[in-house]
Specification:
TIM Barrel, two-stranded parallel ribbon, about 35% helix, eight-stranded mixed sheet, alpha/beta
Amino acid sequence: MALDELPVVNVPRTRPLTADAPPAVGPRPDWLKVKLQPNPNFYELKRLMREQGLHTICEEARCPNITECWGNRTASFLILGDVCTRNCGFCSVTTGRPLGLDWGEPARLAAAVEKLGLRHIVVTSVTRDDLPDGGAIIFAMTIRKLRERVPDCGVEVLIPDFQGNWEALKLVLDARPDILNHNMETVPRLYRRVRPKAIYRQSLELLGRAKALAPEVLTKSGLMVGLGETEAELLGVFEDLRRREVDILTIGQYLRPTLSHLPVERYYRPEEFARLKERASAMGFRHVESGPLVRSSYHAHEQVQHAAAGG
C-alpha cells in the first residue's frame, strides 16, 4: 500500500478521560506551577544567543521549562528568523511577513553550539510558506555545519510541513539528522481551529515518507492536550502515527500563552498523562514522554538514548 493510501483512524467523539475533570478556570493546578530559578548557565546562554543573533523556541514559545533546560546548558534553536507566516491558535511566535534568508545563520548556530559544548540540540523554525522549499535548504545547511563543527553532537530537527513539498523533506533527510520531528499538535477534528493552515493527512504523510526515505533516522511527533479532544481521538492519532512507524511520541498540556490565544478547555491530571503513556507504549512506540510540562524538545537527549536502545 502506498504511503498516501494508508488509512486514517476514525474515532467517535466520546467523553473526556475522566467524567469529573475540572474546568479550565481559575489558577493553574499545583502540578503546572513552575518556580523560575535562573542560574549562571541560564544568563550565559541568553547572552550568547543575543551576541550571535540567534533565536530560541524556548523564548518565542514561552516554554515553562526554560530555566531548567538552559540551566543544564541545553536549548532548542529557532532558525529562519522569528516571524512566522502562519497564525496558529496556540502559538505565541510572531506572525507576519518574514524578510529574506540569513545565509550566515547555520554557521553562527554551529559556532554557538561548539562554544556551549552541547551533546544534543534541537533545531526548529518558524513556518516559511513564503519560500518555495519552506526553508529546507537552511535546515540542511545547519545540520551539515553542525556535523563539521561538533561531529559528536546529536542533531534533532523539528520541521514544518513544507506544504507537502517532498523534495524539501528529502533535502533535510539527505543531511542526516539523528531525529526528524514533526508535531501533529492535536486531533484531526480540531485542526481547523488549532492549525488552520495545516492538513492532518499531509502531516501524517510527511512522517511516513520520512521513515521510508531514511529508515535509520528516528522519527518523532508530539501532541498537546486540553483543547477539547477526547481520549478516543487521542488514541486514534497514536494509532495513525504508529502506522507510519513513528518512533518517539511526546504528550504535554496546552497552556494558553495570552488571552488572545485559544482557551484551555481543561487541565489533565498527572495520572491521566501516565495512562496515556501506558496506552501509547503498548502500541509500540520506542519511547513516550508524557506529562503536564512535557514539550517536544523536553529531555530530548534522554529520549533519543532510550529510543536508540530499543525502548
